[in-house]
Structure formats: C-alpha cells, structure tokens
Amino acid sequence: MPVLCGRCRCVMAADQRPLNEVVFLTVAEVATVMRVSKMTVYRLVHSGHLPAIRVGRSFRVPEQAVHDYLRESYVGVESA
C-alpha cells in the first residue's frame, strides 16, 4: 500500500525493505546521479514519477527508486 506525503503526490511503497536499511538521497544527489537539474527532480517527485518522503521542507528519495526509475525509463536504440 502506498504512503502519501503531505501536499504532493509523492508515493513510497510500504512493502519494501525496512526503513533502517534504505539509503535516502537528497534532491541534489539524485540530480547528480541522473545528470539533470534539481528542478527536474522536483518535477518528477511532485508528479509522482519518483517516490520520495518529505523531511521538514526537504525531500529524500530512496536510492533504489532512482535506479528503478532509470531502468524503467531506459530507451534502447535499434540499429537499421
């Protein structure tokens, strides 16, 4: 069952590893890993495409969620 945070639609699956085993990344760290701007990460979080939790006024994104998002978004190019 997903857990919704505050005012936005960020979702985190509750059936994953225990929280003490989850590695959380800041928005800046996610932006570095994905090689995009922080604003792009915020858009992904607010749209619900990238799960996150809210800590005060900040967001934390599970590292595995970033890897899953990138894996699912991968587009292979076929040669002609």
UniProtKB/TrEMBL annotation:
GO terms for molecular function: DNA binding. Residues 24-72 form the Helix-turn-helix domain. This is Transcriptional regulator.
